[in-house]
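Good morning C.,

I know you're traveling, so I'll keep this short. The sequence:
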Amino acid sequence: MCHDAAFLFVADGRSVLHGNDARLTAAQARRAKHLAGDRLDVMALQASGASWHPICYEYPAAEMAELSASKRMSKLRSVQRLVRQTAPELAVPFAGPPCFLDAEVARLNWVLDQKDGAFCDPEVATDWLREHLPAQHFDHFKPGDSLDLDTGEIVRDPVSAGFTFADAARDPYLERYAADRAPHIAGVFAENPEPGPGLFDRFAAHFEYLGGLSDYFLRQIAMLVRFEVTGPHGGTWDVRLSPDGVSVGEAAPDARPHYRITTAGRWVESVLSGRMAWEDLLISFRLSLYRDPDVYNDHLVGLLKHANAPALQAVEAYETERDWSERITVEWDGGRYDIPRYCPHAGEDLAVGAIVRDGRVHCLAHNFSFDLATGVCVNARAANLTSRRIG
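The tokens, ready to paste straight into the viewer:
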């Protein structure tokens, strides 16, 4: 029962569900508990998503703060509901916040701010979850800590015990950390040198290859993506992905891109040469993005992420062969609405994995929001929810 690297361990009458760095649905977590004999001794949870949105996007400060707060709370509420559904003996928040040691991305360390950042640290996540689920046992761990599953005793590592995520201690710690890792960071740059001549030709060939992998994905993307590639042999290049295929060329002054992605040529070259995948580049935060309109396109990211025909075919089959017959009723502002039980994006059970707020269904698995009146996804490109008012 694995989803995005979630694992269930059962031995000697004890069970651990390792859900860090995973997006488990409530149904998957409940199934794991059932497989473990209807008891989970420990459930590790991802309390901060590994996401480049909104951090890498070009938003005004006020909008960035609003989006970051929404992202943070959406993730915490998702964890809250997952724990409520499974009731482990001990729930342990993991993940986040990221920190940046290289000067190229050090400006992003504002995400560590405990008040405004999109990613909360384990201490903050544990405190929030304890407040909102007071009957549930929560704790968090640092490197070297140990837990005895039979007694529940936690032994704290004496070195890690002195570490805190508090803002006042952060900057000196990061300076020392960056100095310690400087040779390794330099090694990464050495392994990913500046590109040579012909970068555009290699770039164009790469996207022409991607465009031949799935007609379905091209239909779902149907947009112009502009790449601003900085450094030697870079340029501003437009990639038009449409049902008719893919075309790549120099950016046209009068063309309006839906996505704009800016990054250094050395990282583009690393993707083209196979040293890293597009997802590695995105999650490295070594790029900036802009959307117009500001609507997420999951299929564009999926094409870059998977980049092979069998995986794309599997996604297509899942999205086109789902059973929409099972439906539920939700209420908002005195009205009752009939909606499918499962999210049209990735199949989260909306009966337990969603909230209704401001006339919208908010799926907590991936933060997709659907307008109840129209069924339209308002913050991403996704299939219509097919909602209808029944009372």
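Safe travels,
E.
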